[in-house]
Structure formats: C-alpha cells, structure tokens
Write a structure and sequence with these properties.
Belongs to the NDK family. The protein is of the alpha+beta class. α3 links the parallel β2 and β3. The longest helix has 21 residues.
Amino acid sequence: MNPQAMGSKKKEIALQVNISTQELWEEMLSSKGLTVVDVYQGWCGPCKPVVSLFQKMRMEVGLDLLHFALAEADCLDVLEKYRGRCEPTFLFYAGGKLVAVVRGANAPLLQKTILDQLEAERKVLAEGGERKVIKDEVLSEEDERFSREKDDGEDEDVVSSEKACTLAIIKPDAVVHGKTSEIIMKIQEAGFDILTSEERTMTEAEMRLFYQHRAGKEAFEKLVHHMCSGPSHLLILTRTEGTEDVVTAWRNFMGPCDPDVARREQPDSLRAQYGTEMPFNAVHGSRDGEDARRELALLFPGFKFSDQVPEAPLDREEE
C-alpha cells in the first residue's frame, strides 16, 4: 500500500471511532458533546460518501464537542433491530441520549442535523437546560433500558409535558420518487421539530383501521391499496416556533388535499410541489388533536406523548 493511501486510512480511522463492544458503546455515548454513530451492515460496510463531510465538519466546528463513530449492527445487541437494513442509519447521541436520527446518506440533511444538534447541546451544557430526547421505534429494548438506567431511572419517553405532537406521513408515491430527504429538509426549515422518524411499509390491517372513518367504499379501497403499495416515511412532529399549534401548522404547510387545488391556491405547499393527483398527494397529517392521538397510538404504540394536544377546528376533508 502506498504511503498516501495509508495516510488516508489513518485519517478515516481517527475520524470515526469503531465501536465493537458494549463497553465501547457506553463509553462513546458518554462522551461530552454530540456523537454521530454510523450504523452499518457488515456485508456493505460503512457509508464512505459521508466521510469527507464529517472531516469538513470537524475542521469547521473543532474537536471538543463533535465525535464520529462506526458501529456494525451485527456486533452489538443494542443495534439488533437495525440489522439487515441496506439504508445507512446515523444516530445522534448527546449525554448518552438519542436526540436525532437520519436515514440515508443525505449530506445536506446530515450537515444541518449536526449543526442544529451541536448548537442545542452547547446550550444544554452552557445553560443547564433539558435535552430534546427522542425514541427511535427501531431501537432495541436493551438500548432503551440502558438509556433509562444511565439517567437514574427517569423516563425520557415523554419529550415534554407541554409539547403537543402530530403525525406526518410521507406517502409511498413521494418515497418511491426519492423525495423523502427533500421533504424532511423542508419540514425542518419550516420550524417543525422531528421527534421520531422511520421508514416502513404499512400493513393492510393497519391502514383499514387507520382510515376506518372514511366514507365511500371505492375511495377507501383505493386509499388503503395505495398506502400499502410501498414504504412510507413516518414522522412525529412538534413545533417550537410561531403561534400556531403543531396540528394546524402542519396541515397548513401540507396545503389542500387535492394537489391540483393546492397548486392553484397554495403553490408553495408540499402537496402542490410533490403531489400529482388524488390519492397521490405526497403527505398526510392528522386532522385535529383527537385524530393525532388516535393515529399516533395506532402507528407508534410505544410512544408516550403530551396530554395537552390542542383541538384544531378543521374541516373533515380526507387525506
């Protein structure tokens, strides 16, 4: 091997610590600042395209509070449920707690998430505030237990007793066209906080229950079939900016249900930009506070959310 290649390899190793044991995992996650873990599969290896981004970020923000690590899913029991996934997964930890998840080698989204989470952690360290801890539904129960034990048994599943949440779904038509990362970036730029984010294919039983209130058998069957036709991306959203509650803010950001109407009336809305025709309107949102509770309970049964979900007086238009 030539010296240049060896030097490059050394830089890569130094940049990302390889976590191969539970002890190293716990040690790395307890590092001061933000730790970004690239969870990879042994058969395809770590995500190499992001290494240059990570090197750039370390040079820009320094070495004291930003750490990068590699963890092979098959080597750690806490990552059991990440095994067999071909999409790269990046877990963000601060103070031993999961604070963000990014799926896919999306450099702009990774960079934004690193900067946002680093700024948030600096504030926590400087002002002693609380971290915005999330629960990634894919994580194993062992990892959840470890997180709770490290915090002396405090339950971190409740993000905040005052925060209201709503469900957002990036539908199969938008996912299959590769628009997930782009839509997620727009959601974040619009002032929404993403508590949980995961991609999965819905079952017919889930969707029949989910849309059970829909009138019209033909439309119902078409909608259920579409929602089970491929993977969707599910998000739990909160909002810290603006005066609108999160349910209303998200519905306004989605735009009118029919993409054609959306393009006429709200050309900047998500459905105007990413929807084609009904039911392929790219995104779904809970209609009001009551619906948000029902939908979150159905699709995220392990997630505990605020008791204070505001009721939004909205029309009963179907998604």
